[in-house]
Write a structure and sequence with these properties.
This protein is α+β, with helices and mostly antiparallel strands. It is 18% helix and 26% strand. It has 2 helices and 6 strands. It has a two-stranded antiparallel ribbon. The protein has a two-stranded antiparallel ribbon with strand order 3-4. This is Prokaryotic metallothionein.
Length: 77
């Protein structure tokens, strides 16, 4: 069994995420999101959808990007 690196749960069904040359072990998607998801530069929400990138910064939506002065950013629906 392996131990989740976020909550410490020792669980027989943990899974690994391989990213940027590192291996992370989690027991659930909630812990994986907590550790791996970038956060919005404006509201600090974890970005678990596509989000928006502008000038090297990440935002959860176009509204937050515009609130930080980014121009021409729109959400697509």
């Amino acid at each position: 069994m392996a131990r989740c690196e976020v909550c410490g749960n020792d669980y027989r069904m943990t899974f690994e995420v391989h990213a940027q040359g590192n291996v992370h072990v989690f027991d659930c998607f909630q812990c994986a999101i907590h550790r791996m998801a970038p956060t919005c530069e404006h509201c600090n929400a974890p970005i678990i959808g596509q989000g928006v990138e502008a000038d090297g910064q990440f935002f959860c939506c176009a509204h937050c990007a515009r609130a930080e002065g980014k121009v021409g950013i729109v959400d697509h629906v």
